[in-house]
Structure prediction request, 158 residues.
Amino acid sequence: MAKLADLLGNAKRTDLYRVAKNEKVPYRGKKKHGEQMNQKELDFLFNSLKSVDKWGLHPHALQRLQQKGIEATYADIVSTIHNATLIEYHLAKFNDKPDPRVILRAKAVVNGHYNLHVVYSLDRKVVVSVWMNDVNDKHATLDWRDYDKNFRIRGLKY
Prediction:
């Protein structure tokens, strides 16, 4: 069983204190960026994604498609598993339990200059969210302090 501090990841010390006092705090799960992963970790996560026969679509993902005017079919979304860059692995929270997720960035370019991004919940086997980013967006403002290069992928034997 993981310690609460491990699940909160990079939470501020004051947040941990508030948790100890049973106050509500925003959940800040641990994250590992794809660039921090070794080949064994990447292979494990892609194999985990590819082992799922049928991905569900969370209502939030459908809502995002509609809100953002993204014209993507179910096949377009799920095909990112086979032609994408793994951006991030993180533990989100769902029903008060850790929910391991990955974010993939499709290599395919749509509408001239966008890549589809897809969030997969590995345990629940659902697509949680989708969005588009410009192909030239390399996230220069990314705060690497939010990521832990030593964070272990759940289920992988090290």
In short: Helices lie at 4-8, 13-20, 39-50, 59-68, 74-78. Residues 31-146 form one domain.
